[in-house]
Request: fold
Amino acid sequence: MSSVHEWIDANRDRAVEELIEFLRIPSISTDPERSDDMRRCADWLARRLGGAGFTRTEVIPTGGHPVVWGEWMGAPGKPTILLYGHYDVQPVDPLELWETPPFEPSVRDGNLFARGSSDDKGQIFMHVMALESYLRQTGRLPVNVRILFEGEEEIGSEHLTPFIRKQRERLAADVAVVSDTAMFAKGIPSLTYGLRGLCYMQVEVTGPRRDLHSGSYGGASRNPLLALATILSGLQDRDGRVTIPGFYDSVRPLLDEERREFASLNFDEDGLRKEMGVEELWGESGYTVLERMWARPTLDVHGLWGGFQGAGAKTVIPSHCGAKVSMRLVPDQDSAAIGKLFTEHARRLCPPGIQLQVSDVHGANAVIVPLDHPAIRAASRAIEKAFGRAPVKIREGGSIPVVGTFKELLGMPTVLAGVGLPDDAAHAPNEKFHLENFHGGIHMAAYLYEELAGM
Amino acid sequence: MSSVHEWIDANRDRAVEELIEFLRIPSISTDPERSDDMRRCADWLARRLGGAGFTRTEVIPTGGHPVVWGEWMGAPGKPTILLYGHYDVQPVDPLELWETPPFEPSVRDGNLFARGSSDDKGQIFMHVMALESYLRQTGRLPVNVRILFEGEEEIGSEHLTPFIRKQRERLAADVAVVSDTAMFAKGIPSLTYGLRGLCYMQVEVTGPRRDLHSGSYGGASRNPLLALATILSGLQDRDGRVTIPGFYDSVRPLLDEERREFASLNFDEDGLRKEMGVEELWGESGYTVLERMWARPTLDVHGLWGGFQGAGAKTVIPSHCGAKVSMRLVPDQDSAAIGKLFTEHARRLCPPGIQLQVSDVHGANAVIVPLDHPAIRAASRAIEKAFGRAPVKIREGGSIPVVGTFKELLGMPTVLAGVGLPDDAAHAPNEKFHLENFHGGIHMAAYLYEELAGM
Reply:
């Protein structure tokens, strides 16, 4: 083992240099103009896996962006793990808020700044380096490894479920390993056992057939933008509770034990407040902020558009406007059922005479991984070896839809061993990855393969 | 007189051709990138007035876009009129809804389609042609004429009031003439005696200092877009009444006589409904649609922006969002006072912990012109001569802020003799000008100068 970890330490600089190369490719999955870059990014990754010693790799087309697949099955009798990650990244707007360009990676104060550095290219690349360390130093891996790196995580993994269904045999494994989560805080290694689900909706409102001059027509027509405001403001009450009838019916209550464990983490609420730059933390009454972020469903509006958005004044009654809204879900809410309840409620809130179109952009159910599973215990040991202390057990507010799919279609649990940090600004300007966690994460991945071999 | 009107008829084609040349200049006053086009448009107009026989013309700089000024004072002992109009036009977005490009004028079915065709370049140009008809055929005008064509009407005439204050002597006149209004309906010539005022506000809302990932932070922060929706939806009630406390305190009630006169116009509500493309007309309860559009204050949201507006999904809690809102005002509401009431109410509606910035974009008070003024009676006769029937007396829902300024600073009333049509789509895609009204309007302007000479 030690030669593997020596190799990892000896290759620190190269690891950063190659990650920078990976991050330079603007693989924004939601942007149709980036489809060539997506393909280029998948090819780069497959080639790099080949360079690491993976003899079987393939870039497999889907209905959308391609999947990077690979396998090394040279450890008969040992468990097989499925390494999952995503090479696509979030859009970069508002671009003007980036201190350095999102696709020109820049190291400052021990952090690597670039879109995708933490979510998820940096965390994928930890595994690439860890796999290479074994293959170069020992000529083998401690476990059988299959690889599934997708290009549509940030846009709802639309083509991944059919892909998994079709490629069931090439993806069969005992456990999935995903590094796409964050530590509880800097210096506190963590093992994530719960993820929230998501129900992402688009609301579009149309009033008059054409834009009207508000001088001539003001007083004759409902205003679609006011109608949209009425709908949106009717989704949540003053106590931070979602007002969609039936929304909480399937919510699994937090266990007393969980509430105690969350409380024992002594979460730094004031630090969070400062990091977010808000005057006060706020949310559903009756719950702590950690409970609200990890284990309670929430609703957010992500975007609003309509009418005149330029400088100065334009006195128009716009014909059309819209909004993007999502709800984070917890066990046992069903994303499709919640989407229906949302749509029905929006229709009730919509004033008469206004046309409303509600569409389901994407969804995923929440996941809880059993803490007593051997793979989870193996991961706990690997994290402790790499970072010098046992991980805290946490949940995470975000969603990784594929984790639910792995359970439903491939019948396996998922180890969520991520080393991002809460202030990495995933999905926001100035995303960064803490380089100490990157290097520690490579060691962690190497220990993890070894520990999983003996599970 | 007849040689003047013969000349007008003989120059119909040239009038349209030259108007098209005028309309080709994209004089969008709100767009900083169009400032050269604004200057080019002012120069074109001054040159064209010179070509019509105006010996004194000038393009006068202001703090914003220039003013086109001119005078012909060769009728001693006769009244002086001040011709006002604006050569700037509204923005063109959404551009994709135009059937032909906004600055490539196109004649279809007796209408000239172009941005500014009706509002207000076409109506300015009627006067240019009418002035030329007299100067060419008789070598003189029946009245003294001063000209004030501004370039900032569509952005609130910010620099016009100081200009008028400074140039009081060069603008002194007995009556102002403005052709920037519409007929009641096609074939029904109209004289407008009332205009609504305007109070145009911008609302900006900031929550977290930076954009946040809704997975990680959903449940910890108020959502600025929901806060904006709450503010906007609190501005109007279900009965279409503005809910800002004190908003209606200074509203002059409609006279029974006016309500009877409006009712006698037999307004085609179903036609309006179809023209607007709405399922139902809607507004403040207790008033007819004409009363609501002409003589009752209203509130509209003109634009909304914030967060992710692209295709697909982005799970962001945006830091910032905003909206443009205006209120149409009636006598005796004061625009500045209403702006203050609006701001106070928005602050009351804003959830705690959210930063709210409200700014006053521009404003104007409503105007009523006395129907028994000799200039109004002269205009009534001119309209009847040009269009073959006496005009109906109407009010208009839009605002022409300068009319109030003329009264306050220059002490003169304004004749509002416009020949637009209600469906001209001013401020909207596919703006057009009915060519029959354009040609009739040139005759009307010529008759108007003659009638005003004898007032």
Notes: DSSP finds 15 helices and 18 strands in chain B. Residues 175 and 237 of chain B are 41 Å apart (CA to CA). Chain B touches chain A through 100 residues (CB under 8 Å). The domain at 197-251+297-362 of chain B is CATH 3.30.70.360 (Alpha-Beta Plaits).
